[in-house]
UniProtKB/TrEMBL annotation:
This is Molybdopterin synthase sulfur carrier subunit. PANTHER family: MOLYBDOPTERIN SYNTHASE SULFUR CARRIER SUBUNIT. Keywords: Nucleotide-binding, Transferase. NCBIfam families: moaD, PRK11130.1. Gene3D superfamilies: 3.10.20.30. Belongs to the MoaD family. GO terms for molecular function: molybdopterin synthase activity.
Length: 81
């Protein structure tokens, strides 16, 4: 199982803060594609190149490998002022 977390505006847009998935995705890119199939909001959030991702609390890229038991977090880019 992979634990998937959504933060900030993504949580509100998707109406979901976490999922537990039995996924066959071997990397972040494949996981994004799998989740994007859930609908337009999911596609907009997950396929946006600005979406940030962390695996096991470490920032990473879409090519990062996934394994059973990983925690994947998606969140929007941080803005400041």
């Amino acid at each position: 199982m992979i634990q998937v977390l959504f933060f900030a505006g993504y949580r509100e847009r998707l109406g979901c803060d976490r999922l537990e998935l039995d996924s066959s995705a071997s990397n972040i890119s494949e996981l994004k594609e799998e989740l994007a199939e859930r609908g337009d909001n999911w596609k907009t959030v997950l396929l946006d190149r600005k979406t940030l991702v962390a695996v096991n609390q470490t920032m990473t890229k879409d090519s990062a490998a996934l394994k059973d038991g990983d925690e994947v977090a998606f969140f929007p880019p941080v803005t400041g002022g």
